[in-house]
């Protein structure tokens, strides 16, 4: 099994960091965005952005695998 790249790990940690360690920055009811308290809006936003970050991490991993495969196939010819 191949170890994940540092880039994909960092991209995967973005949502975790944004929801867990930024509490002191957004722990306010006001201002309201779209009628929601800011802290609720922040968490819902990251709920929707997390799949995008996971896709980015997946893309970084599969790009690295396809480049390695291309190099192996090119050297064998």
User: What low-confidence regions span 5 or more consecutive residues with pLDDT below 50?
Assistant: none
Q: What is the residue-averaged pLDDT?
A: 82
**Shape from CA axes?**
elongated
Number of helices: 3
Bin the helical content: over 70%
The fraction of residues assigned to DSSP E strands is: 5-15%
Radius of gyration: 19 Å
The SSE order reads HHEEH
Overall strand count: 2
The major beta sheet can be summarized as: 2 strands, antiparallel
Separation, N- and C-terminal Cα atoms: 26 Å
Strand order of the largest sheet: 1-2
Structural class based on helices, strands and sheet pairing = mainly alpha
Descriptive report:
The two termini are 26 Å apart. With 77 residues, the protein is mostly helical. The protein has a two-stranded antiparallel sheet with strand order 1-2. It is elongated and about 60 Å long. Helix content is 75%, strand content 5%. It contains three helices and two strands; from the N terminus they run H-H-E-E-H. Helix 1 runs antiparallel to helix 3. It has a domain of 46 residues.
